[in-house]
Design brief:
mainly alpha, 8 helices, transmembrane, transmembrane helix, 190 residues, globular, membrane
Amino acid sequence: MTIFLILAPYGVYTFLMFMTSATVSVFAGSAICIATIAIDVARGRSVKILAAGSAILFAGIGLFLALHPTLSTLGVKLSVDIGIFVISLGSMLARRPFTLQYAIESVPAETAAMPGFLTANYIITAAWTVAALLMMAANIVLLYFPGLPVWSGLAVAFAARNSAIYFTKWYPEYRQIKYGAPDGALPEAQ
């Protein structure tokens, strides 16, 4: 459920990019980010860096498009990917990897205090940062080589996101096996 809520704004944005204008797509993504923030607040959870940053990112791109509708669809996709990359990398540089907030809320406090817990979250956030970097690179290649099929960029984005999702689910299990953490001690991607 958690992964679904995290990725819902991006899924809706991507789907709507095929169905309607980029402006509508990014504002819809922003609205869903705000809805996920509201769900977290209603459940007594913290406002997440990724959700808040993404809401601002989508709304900012939407406002830019409303004022300057000349930005191409590929330009919008590249802007979103750059924004996700900046949020992800920025969270690590600020020493608060964005996955940490989700992980802390899904494990007991004594587990969150373990030294390897923070390291694991840096590694998982780094995987998402690399995925965003790959998506950016694919969009840059499509921007400079417009003769390439659009599906090639979609394939890279699909592979990068799915790899990051898989890694997010796999890595805590790996650490549990490698370091012998007790069951339920490490966060599970839900």
